[in-house]
Amino acid sequence: METLFQSTLIQQPLKLLTWWSIAMTEASLLTTVLATVACGLLTLFLTTVLWRWHFENCRDPSSSLPLPPGSFGWPVIGETLRFLRGGNNTDYIRKRFPGCGISKTHIFGMPMIRVNSDKAIAQLVGKEPHAVFQSLPTSVKQIFGENGVSVISGKDHASMKKILREGFSPVRLSDLLPTVQACVRRHVTSWTQGTGENKMLGFKACQHLVCDLILETVVGCTRDQDPDGAIREAFVFCNDNMFCVPVDFPGTTFHKALRARQKVVDFARKRIAAAMSSEKDYVSILDVLLTHLAKPTETVTGDGAEENSTTEGSAEKASQPGSLTKVQLEDNVVTIMLAGTDTVSSALCNTLDLLGKHPDKLAALREELASQDLLDSSFIYWCTL
Protein backbone atom coordinates (compact mmCIF):
# COMPACT_ATOMS: atom_id res chain seq x y z
CA MET A 1 0.00 0.00 0.00
CA GLU A 2 2.82 2.37 0.83
CA THR A 3 4.51 1.70 -2.55
CA LEU A 4 1.24 2.28 -4.44
CA PHE A 5 0.65 5.53 -2.55
CA GLN A 6 4.13 6.80 -3.43
CA SER A 7 3.63 5.88 -7.12
CA THR A 8 0.36 7.81 -7.20
CA LEU A 9 2.02 10.86 -5.66
CA ILE A 10 4.71 10.75 -8.38
CA GLN A 11 2.29 10.27 -11.35
CA GLN A 12 -0.01 13.17 -10.46
CA PRO A 13 2.68 15.90 -10.79
CA LEU A 14 3.87 14.28 -14.05
CA LYS A 15 0.35 14.38 -15.50
CA LEU A 16 -0.07 17.96 -14.34
CA LEU A 17 3.26 18.91 -15.95
CA THR A 18 2.34 17.17 -19.23
CA TRP A 19 -1.04 18.93 -19.35
CA TRP A 20 0.62 22.29 -18.68
CA SER A 21 3.15 21.66 -21.47
CA ILE A 22 0.38 20.80 -23.97
CA ALA A 23 -1.62 23.85 -22.91
CA MET A 24 1.42 26.11 -23.36
CA THR A 25 2.08 24.60 -26.82
CA GLU A 26 -1.53 25.16 -27.91
CA ALA A 27 -1.46 28.70 -26.54
CA SER A 28 1.81 29.41 -28.35
CA LEU A 29 0.40 28.03 -31.63
CA LEU A 30 -2.80 30.04 -31.23
CA THR A 31 -0.78 33.18 -30.49
CA THR A 32 1.33 32.62 -33.61
CA VAL A 33 -1.76 32.15 -35.79
CA LEU A 34 -3.47 35.22 -34.35
CA ALA A 35 -0.32 37.29 -34.78
CA THR A 36 0.04 36.17 -38.41
CA VAL A 37 -3.60 36.95 -39.18
CA ALA A 38 -3.34 40.33 -37.44
CA CYS A 39 -0.19 41.23 -39.39
CA GLY A 40 -1.84 40.17 -42.64
CA LEU A 41 -4.96 42.22 -41.96
CA LEU A 42 -2.89 45.22 -40.90
CA THR A 43 -0.76 44.97 -44.05
CA LEU A 44 -3.87 44.69 -46.23
CA PHE A 45 -5.46 47.66 -44.48
CA LEU A 46 -2.38 49.86 -44.83
CA THR A 47 -1.86 48.81 -48.45
CA THR A 48 -5.48 49.61 -49.28
CA VAL A 49 -5.25 53.02 -47.60
CA LEU A 50 -2.01 53.89 -49.39
CA TRP A 51 -3.44 52.53 -52.68
CA ARG A 52 -6.47 54.81 -52.52
CA TRP A 53 -4.47 57.77 -51.19
CA HIS A 54 -2.06 57.45 -54.13
CA PHE A 55 -4.78 57.67 -56.77
CA GLU A 56 -6.64 60.39 -54.91
CA ASN A 57 -3.49 62.52 -55.14
CA CYS A 58 -2.95 61.78 -58.85
CA ARG A 59 -5.76 64.10 -59.92
CA ASP A 60 -5.18 67.38 -61.71
CA PRO A 61 -3.58 69.80 -59.20
CA SER A 62 -5.02 72.79 -61.06
CA SER A 63 -8.58 71.66 -60.28
CA SER A 64 -10.17 71.97 -56.86
CA LEU A 65 -13.11 69.76 -57.76
CA PRO A 66 -13.30 66.38 -55.99
CA LEU A 67 -13.19 63.05 -57.79
CA PRO A 68 -16.54 61.40 -58.58
CA PRO A 69 -18.02 58.91 -56.11
CA GLY A 70 -16.88 55.33 -56.26
CA SER A 71 -13.99 53.16 -55.16
CA PHE A 72 -10.61 52.06 -56.49
CA GLY A 73 -11.19 48.61 -54.98
CA TRP A 74 -8.48 46.31 -53.68
CA PRO A 75 -4.77 46.85 -54.24
CA VAL A 76 -3.45 45.79 -57.66
CA ILE A 77 -6.66 44.04 -58.84
CA GLY A 78 -8.93 47.01 -58.12
CA GLU A 79 -12.52 46.16 -59.04
CA THR A 80 -11.63 43.95 -61.98
CA LEU A 81 -13.17 40.80 -60.52
CA ARG A 82 -16.36 42.63 -59.64
CA PHE A 83 -16.53 44.11 -63.13
CA LEU A 84 -16.02 40.75 -64.83
CA ARG A 85 -18.57 39.10 -62.58
CA GLY A 86 -21.32 41.66 -63.15
CA GLY A 87 -20.11 44.31 -65.57
CA ASN A 88 -23.21 43.99 -67.78
CA ASN A 89 -25.70 43.44 -64.99
CA THR A 90 -28.41 46.10 -64.70
CA ASP A 91 -28.30 46.19 -60.89
CA TYR A 92 -24.51 46.52 -60.94
CA ILE A 93 -24.66 49.45 -63.37
CA ARG A 94 -27.38 51.14 -61.31
CA LYS A 95 -25.32 50.85 -58.12
CA ARG A 96 -22.12 52.05 -59.77
CA PHE A 97 -23.71 55.13 -61.36
CA PRO A 98 -25.78 56.85 -58.70
CA GLY A 99 -27.56 60.04 -59.74
CA CYS A 100 -25.11 61.80 -62.05
CA GLY A 101 -24.03 58.63 -63.87
CA ILE A 102 -20.29 59.12 -63.22
CA SER A 103 -18.16 56.89 -61.01
CA LYS A 104 -14.47 56.28 -60.35
CA THR A 105 -13.08 52.75 -60.43
CA HIS A 106 -9.95 50.73 -61.16
CA ILE A 107 -10.16 47.84 -63.62
CA PHE A 108 -7.64 45.98 -65.75
CA GLY A 109 -4.70 47.63 -63.99
CA MET A 110 -5.78 51.21 -64.73
CA PRO A 111 -7.62 53.89 -62.70
CA MET A 112 -10.48 55.37 -64.67
CA ILE A 113 -13.74 57.28 -64.58
CA ARG A 114 -16.74 55.45 -65.96
CA VAL A 115 -19.41 57.60 -67.60
CA ASN A 116 -22.97 56.44 -68.18
CA SER A 117 -24.62 59.70 -69.17
CA ASP A 118 -25.45 60.82 -72.72
CA LYS A 119 -24.80 64.46 -71.85
CA ALA A 120 -21.42 63.76 -70.26
CA ILE A 121 -20.33 61.49 -73.11
CA ALA A 122 -21.27 64.17 -75.67
CA GLN A 123 -19.08 66.68 -73.85
CA LEU A 124 -16.13 64.29 -73.81
CA VAL A 125 -16.44 63.39 -77.49
CA GLY A 126 -16.59 67.07 -78.40
CA LYS A 127 -13.25 67.71 -76.67
CA GLU A 128 -11.36 64.87 -78.35
CA PRO A 129 -8.45 64.95 -79.18
CA HIS A 130 -7.61 68.34 -77.62
CA ALA A 131 -8.68 67.92 -73.98
CA VAL A 132 -9.13 64.14 -73.88
CA PHE A 133 -7.70 61.29 -75.90
CA GLN A 134 -8.43 57.61 -76.35
CA SER A 135 -6.78 55.12 -74.02
CA LEU A 136 -7.07 51.37 -73.68
CA PRO A 137 -6.55 48.95 -70.76
CA THR A 138 -2.99 47.75 -70.26
CA SER A 139 -3.79 44.21 -71.39
CA VAL A 140 -5.28 45.48 -74.67
CA LYS A 141 -2.26 47.72 -75.31
CA GLN A 142 0.13 44.82 -74.81
CA ILE A 143 -1.80 42.53 -77.13
CA PHE A 144 -2.32 45.15 -79.84
CA GLY A 145 1.27 46.36 -79.61
CA GLU A 146 2.55 49.78 -78.58
CA ASN A 147 2.64 50.96 -82.21
CA GLY A 148 -0.90 49.86 -83.09
CA VAL A 149 -3.24 52.50 -84.49
CA SER A 150 -5.69 51.82 -81.64
CA VAL A 151 -3.01 52.53 -79.02
CA ILE A 152 -1.23 55.63 -80.32
CA SER A 153 -2.88 59.05 -80.31
CA GLY A 154 -2.53 62.56 -81.68
CA LYS A 155 -0.60 63.17 -84.89
CA ASP A 156 0.85 59.66 -84.85
CA HIS A 157 -2.67 58.22 -84.81
CA ALA A 158 -3.81 60.47 -87.66
CA SER A 159 -0.76 59.59 -89.76
CA MET A 160 -1.14 55.85 -89.14
CA LYS A 161 -4.87 55.98 -89.83
CA LYS A 162 -4.19 57.68 -93.16
CA ILE A 163 -1.84 54.89 -94.18
CA LEU A 164 -4.19 52.10 -93.10
CA ARG A 165 -7.15 53.72 -94.83
CA GLU A 166 -5.54 53.00 -98.19
CA GLY A 167 -5.99 49.29 -97.55
CA PHE A 168 -9.77 49.73 -97.41
CA SER A 169 -10.27 51.88 -100.50
CA PRO A 170 -12.92 50.80 -103.07
CA VAL A 171 -10.19 49.57 -105.41
CA ARG A 172 -8.64 47.36 -102.73
CA LEU A 173 -12.02 46.09 -101.55
CA SER A 174 -12.92 45.13 -105.11
CA ASP A 175 -9.71 43.10 -105.29
CA LEU A 176 -10.62 41.34 -102.03
CA LEU A 177 -14.23 40.66 -103.02
CA PRO A 178 -13.57 37.20 -104.58
CA THR A 179 -11.73 36.11 -101.43
CA VAL A 180 -14.57 37.33 -99.22
CA GLN A 181 -17.24 35.58 -101.29
CA ALA A 182 -15.35 32.29 -101.41
CA CYS A 183 -14.78 32.31 -97.64
CA VAL A 184 -18.41 33.16 -96.82
CA ARG A 185 -19.79 30.55 -99.24
CA ARG A 186 -17.48 27.90 -97.78
CA HIS A 187 -18.60 28.55 -94.21
CA VAL A 188 -22.32 28.89 -94.98
CA THR A 189 -22.20 25.65 -96.96
CA SER A 190 -20.54 23.88 -94.02
CA TRP A 191 -23.34 25.13 -91.74
CA THR A 192 -26.00 23.49 -93.92
CA GLN A 193 -24.11 20.22 -94.41
CA GLY A 194 -23.61 19.28 -90.78
CA THR A 195 -24.58 16.06 -89.06
CA GLY A 196 -27.49 15.29 -86.79
CA GLU A 197 -29.96 18.14 -86.31
CA ASN A 198 -27.61 20.74 -87.83
CA LYS A 199 -27.51 22.69 -84.58
CA MET A 200 -24.57 24.92 -83.71
CA LEU A 201 -23.64 27.93 -81.62
CA GLY A 202 -24.37 30.92 -83.81
CA PHE A 203 -21.80 33.29 -82.32
CA LYS A 204 -18.97 30.74 -82.45
CA ALA A 205 -19.79 29.88 -86.05
CA CYS A 206 -19.81 33.57 -86.99
CA GLN A 207 -16.59 34.11 -85.05
CA HIS A 208 -14.84 31.34 -86.99
CA LEU A 209 -16.13 32.86 -90.23
CA VAL A 210 -14.82 36.32 -89.33
CA CYS A 211 -11.52 34.84 -88.14
CA ASP A 212 -10.93 33.05 -91.45
CA LEU A 213 -12.07 36.09 -93.38
CA ILE A 214 -9.65 38.40 -91.57
CA LEU A 215 -6.69 36.05 -91.91
CA GLU A 216 -7.30 35.62 -95.64
CA THR A 217 -7.91 39.29 -96.45
CA VAL A 218 -5.28 40.85 -94.17
CA VAL A 219 -2.29 38.52 -94.58
CA GLY A 220 -3.45 36.07 -97.25
CA CYS A 221 -3.54 33.09 -94.88
CA THR A 222 -5.60 30.23 -96.27
CA ARG A 223 -6.24 26.83 -94.74
CA ASP A 224 -3.22 25.50 -96.60
CA GLN A 225 -0.86 27.79 -94.67
CA ASP A 226 -2.47 26.77 -91.36
CA PRO A 227 -3.42 23.09 -91.76
CA ASP A 228 -3.57 22.30 -88.03
CA GLY A 229 -5.45 25.51 -87.16
CA ALA A 230 -2.79 26.65 -84.65
CA ILE A 231 -2.76 30.24 -85.92
CA ARG A 232 -6.53 30.48 -85.92
CA GLU A 233 -6.66 29.02 -82.41
CA ALA A 234 -4.08 31.56 -81.19
CA PHE A 235 -5.99 34.33 -82.95
CA VAL A 236 -9.27 33.40 -81.24
CA PHE A 237 -7.55 33.00 -77.85
CA CYS A 238 -6.05 36.50 -78.08
CA ASN A 239 -9.40 37.93 -79.03
CA ASP A 240 -11.32 36.14 -76.25
CA ASN A 241 -8.83 37.09 -73.51
CA MET A 242 -7.96 40.62 -74.55
CA PHE A 243 -9.54 42.09 -71.40
CA CYS A 244 -7.80 40.46 -68.44
CA VAL A 245 -5.67 41.32 -65.42
CA PRO A 246 -2.28 42.40 -66.87
CA VAL A 247 -0.11 40.11 -64.74
CA ASP A 248 2.54 38.45 -66.91
CA PHE A 249 3.19 35.36 -64.81
CA PRO A 250 3.26 31.74 -66.04
CA GLY A 251 -0.18 30.23 -65.79
CA THR A 252 -2.12 33.51 -65.92
CA THR A 253 -4.53 34.31 -68.72
CA PHE A 254 -2.51 37.38 -69.68
CA HIS A 255 0.66 35.32 -70.03
CA LYS A 256 -1.13 32.80 -72.23
CA ALA A 257 -2.61 35.62 -74.32
CA LEU A 258 0.84 37.12 -74.88
CA ARG A 259 2.18 33.73 -75.97
CA ALA A 260 -0.74 33.36 -78.37
CA ARG A 261 -0.05 36.86 -79.70
CA GLN A 262 3.57 35.91 -80.32
CA LYS A 263 2.39 33.02 -82.49
CA VAL A 264 0.28 35.43 -84.51
CA VAL A 265 3.22 37.87 -84.79
CA ASP A 266 5.62 35.12 -85.91
CA PHE A 267 3.15 34.04 -88.57
CA ALA A 268 2.64 37.66 -89.65
CA ARG A 269 6.41 38.00 -90.08
CA LYS A 270 6.44 34.95 -92.34
CA ARG A 271 3.63 36.39 -94.42
CA ILE A 272 5.45 39.74 -94.61
CA ALA A 273 8.58 38.00 -95.85
CA ALA A 274 6.51 36.05 -98.41
CA ALA A 275 4.70 39.19 -99.55
CA MET A 276 8.00 41.01 -100.07
CA SER A 277 9.14 38.25 -102.42
CA SER A 278 7.93 37.95 -105.99
CA GLU A 279 6.44 34.48 -105.43
CA LYS A 280 2.94 35.04 -104.07
CA ASP A 281 -0.46 34.07 -105.39
CA TYR A 282 -2.82 36.13 -103.25
CA VAL A 283 -4.04 39.70 -102.74
CA SER A 284 -4.23 41.13 -99.22
CA ILE A 285 -4.25 44.36 -97.24
CA LEU A 286 -0.66 43.59 -96.34
CA ASP A 287 0.32 44.55 -99.90
CA VAL A 288 -0.76 48.14 -99.23
CA LEU A 289 1.14 48.37 -95.96
CA LEU A 290 4.30 47.02 -97.56
CA THR A 291 4.33 49.95 -99.99
CA HIS A 292 4.88 52.19 -96.96
CA LEU A 293 7.63 50.07 -95.42
CA ALA A 294 10.69 52.23 -94.78
CA LYS A 295 13.70 51.27 -96.84
CA PRO A 296 16.97 50.50 -95.03
CA THR A 297 19.23 53.53 -94.82
CA GLU A 298 22.88 53.33 -95.74
CA THR A 299 25.47 54.55 -93.25
CA VAL A 300 29.20 54.92 -93.72
CA THR A 301 31.41 53.15 -91.17
CA GLY A 302 34.81 54.30 -89.97
CA ASP A 303 36.68 52.33 -92.63
CA GLY A 304 34.65 53.91 -95.40
CA ALA A 305 32.43 50.88 -96.03
CA GLU A 306 28.70 51.31 -96.44
CA GLU A 307 26.42 49.50 -94.03
CA ASN A 308 22.65 49.05 -94.24
CA SER A 309 20.79 49.84 -91.02
CA THR A 310 17.47 48.07 -90.70
CA THR A 311 14.49 49.12 -88.60
CA GLU A 312 13.58 45.56 -87.68
CA GLY A 313 13.29 45.06 -83.94
CA SER A 314 13.19 48.80 -83.28
CA ALA A 315 10.09 50.62 -82.09
CA GLU A 316 11.38 53.99 -83.28
CA LYS A 317 9.48 55.98 -85.88
CA ALA A 318 10.44 55.70 -89.51
CA SER A 319 12.64 58.55 -90.62
CA GLN A 320 10.78 58.88 -93.93
CA PRO A 321 7.39 60.68 -93.81
CA GLY A 322 4.44 58.36 -94.39
CA SER A 323 6.56 55.24 -93.94
CA LEU A 324 6.46 52.37 -91.46
CA THR A 325 9.10 50.44 -89.59
CA LYS A 326 8.81 46.66 -89.48
CA VAL A 327 7.72 46.81 -85.84
CA GLN A 328 4.99 49.31 -86.70
CA LEU A 329 3.95 47.11 -89.60
CA GLU A 330 3.73 44.01 -87.39
CA ASP A 331 1.80 45.77 -84.61
CA ASN A 332 -0.73 47.24 -87.01
CA VAL A 333 -1.22 43.95 -88.82
CA VAL A 334 -2.05 42.36 -85.45
CA THR A 335 -4.30 45.32 -84.57
CA ILE A 336 -6.26 45.05 -87.82
CA MET A 337 -6.66 41.32 -87.28
CA LEU A 338 -7.90 41.60 -83.69
CA ALA A 339 -9.83 44.88 -83.62
CA GLY A 340 -13.52 44.52 -84.32
CA THR A 341 -13.62 40.73 -84.54
CA ASP A 342 -16.20 40.31 -81.80
CA THR A 343 -18.34 43.25 -82.94
CA VAL A 344 -18.54 41.93 -86.51
CA SER A 345 -19.21 38.40 -85.24
CA SER A 346 -21.95 39.71 -82.97
CA ALA A 347 -23.53 41.70 -85.81
CA LEU A 348 -23.56 38.62 -88.05
CA CYS A 349 -25.03 36.50 -85.27
CA ASN A 350 -27.76 39.07 -84.61
CA THR A 351 -28.54 39.19 -88.33
CA LEU A 352 -28.99 35.42 -88.45
CA ASP A 353 -31.12 35.53 -85.31
CA LEU A 354 -33.41 38.26 -86.64
CA LEU A 355 -33.81 36.57 -90.03
CA GLY A 356 -34.71 33.33 -88.27
CA LYS A 357 -37.32 35.08 -86.11
CA HIS A 358 -38.85 36.98 -89.05
CA PRO A 359 -39.32 34.57 -91.98
CA ASP A 360 -41.36 37.19 -93.87
CA LYS A 361 -38.34 39.51 -93.93
CA LEU A 362 -36.14 36.63 -95.07
CA ALA A 363 -38.57 35.89 -97.92
CA ALA A 364 -38.60 39.56 -98.93
CA LEU A 365 -34.80 39.61 -98.91
CA ARG A 366 -34.64 36.52 -101.11
CA GLU A 367 -37.13 38.09 -103.51
CA GLU A 368 -35.09 41.28 -103.74
CA LEU A 369 -31.86 39.38 -104.41
CA ALA A 370 -33.59 37.24 -107.03
CA SER A 371 -34.91 40.34 -108.81
CA GLN A 372 -31.32 41.56 -109.17
CA ASP A 373 -30.12 38.13 -110.31
CA LEU A 374 -27.89 37.86 -107.23
CA LEU A 375 -29.42 34.90 -105.43
CA ASP A 376 -28.01 32.17 -107.68
CA SER A 377 -25.04 34.09 -109.03
CA SER A 378 -21.72 32.34 -108.60
CA PHE A 379 -19.87 35.64 -108.36
CA ILE A 380 -20.94 39.17 -107.44
CA TYR A 381 -18.99 41.98 -109.04
CA TRP A 382 -17.99 45.15 -107.23
CA CYS A 383 -19.83 47.32 -109.75
CA THR A 384 -23.03 45.44 -108.93
CA LEU A 385 -22.69 46.33 -105.26
UniProtKB/TrEMBL annotation:
SUPFAM superfamilies: Cytochrome P450 (SSF48264). Gene3D superfamilies: Cytochrome P450. Residues 299-322 are annotated as: Disordered. InterPro entries: Cyt_P450 (IPR001128), Cyt_P450_sf (IPR036396). Coiled coil: none annotated. One of its GO terms (biological process) is sterol metabolic process. It holds the Pfam family p450. Keywords: Heme, Iron, Membrane, Metal-binding, Monooxygenase, Oxidoreductase, Transmembrane, Transmembrane helix. One of its GO terms (molecular function) is oxidoreductase activity, acting on paired donors, with incorporation or reduction of molecular oxygen. The chain crosses the membrane at residues 27-51. PANTHER family: CYTOCHROME P450 26, P450, PUTATIVE (EUROFUNG)-RELATED. Belongs to the cytochrome P450 family. This is Cytochrome P450.
